[in-house]
Amino acid sequence: MEIHLRFFGTVRRSVGAKTAAREMPSDATVRDLLAALEADHSGLAGDLLDGGDVASGVTVLLDGTNVANRSGAATPLTDGATVAVTPPLTGG
After folding, report:
1. Average pLDDT over residues 33-43
2. d(Cα 88, Cα 47) in Å, to the nearest integer?
3. SS3 breakdown of the chain: % helix, strand, coil, rounded to 5?
4. Would 24 be classed as within a structural domain?
5. What is the pTM (predicted TM-score) of this model?
6. What is the rounded distance in angstroms from the CA atom of residue 90 to the CA atom of residue 92?
């Protein structure tokens, strides 16, 4: 299935793009997607997942809904879904 991705902040810098599309297996979860992104982009290694869960401070929206309000990293993906990944916000 095809997943549409949107990246923000340091995630965007590590990936080198604002948007992307990625093929995932039909039974893929948010965890699978984040693990694949960490594996493909060394600048993200260990930043998106922590012990199999979405890392603290990282926001992942699936079709506009925070996955924390669903099943977290275990949330299943669907064909054509849009996933937005935002790193922890810092500054002041």
Report:
1. 96
2. 10
3. 30, 30, 40
4. yes
5. 0.95
6. 7
